[in-house]
Amino acid sequence: xxxxxxxxxxxxxxxxxxxxxxxxxxxxxxxxxxxxxxxxxxxxxxxxxxxxxxxxxxxxxxxxxxxxxxxxxxxxxxxxxxxxxxxxxxxxxxxxxxxxxxxxxxxxxxxxxxxxxxxxxxxxxxxxxxxxxxxxxxxxxxxxxxxxxxxxxxxxxxxxxxxxxxxxxxxxxxxxxxxxxxxxxxxxxxxxxxxxxxxxxxxxxxxxxxxxxxxxxxxxxxxxxxxxxxxxxxxxxxxxxxxxxxxxxxxxxxxxxxxxxxxxxxxxxxxxxxxxxxxxxxxxxxxxxxxxxxxxxxxxxxxxxxxxxxxxxxxxxxxxxxxxxxxxxxxxxxxxxxxxxxxxxxxxxxxxxxxxxxxxxxxx
Length: 364
Known about the structure:
Arc Repressor Mutant, subunit A, alpha/beta
């Protein structure tokens, strides 16, 4: 039998730790789970567990992210062709994942997620931005199944996600309290909610100007978490490298980009051991429902790539990343032709060499 390489051994051990941790968390709950028990279940040492994950919370986030990304589509979900239909389908897909009052074990693994997020500012702030990104993705999809000229719908998406996250928390805290059909109906009614939503572009004097450059663009293969397939990175478009404190800026690049241009948000963090898994979880939760609730033609024009290794950021010329990173490049004909750094970088790179306009809204 061929001997495993170091990388293959590490990957195998990581998978064994994740499987053991899933069983430990399901059986004992996050609070009572023990790293020593996880190591014993995985038939590894305690040191081997910590070589893959910096702590119990990081391991918990990784288990939940892995489950969210592998979750099968529920049966009989039809994509919506209107905003109202899409909201109904999205809510049904979301609620289908909630544990029933009689469920135990793996079905109730997520009960401790919000307490762990709230326990530390290091997780609260990125989580708030991840919720913003979720609402942007959801709102852009809603706009694409709405009549031309309709208002920006990101705030409607925020209201729907608030309702559904509340339903999730009640399902965990008070099993049997939530009536799923009522929640679906409430979300469906939000399609007509008037919130006076619009899109004011960033104030031009306060954003950086994109610098004209001529640099190579050779991105590594990466997965687009929005669609669950290889990201399209070879065509013309905008690539925004965003730390987990700056994710809301992804919308600036989408709204400013010319029609037909690919827009990619590359998510980076200064704490990949813990926060990268939280980001994967938050995006997978929403994008799994989006892909069920909307036809492919309505999926948002925003690719999301998790760049835990920093390889894609490096290809864009960003050698060091943090949660405050905000750098964007414009790609044309396989070359980087414009670059911007700092607040408003996505807007600057996307609108480089375009006439400055201030429309109320660009469809995503």
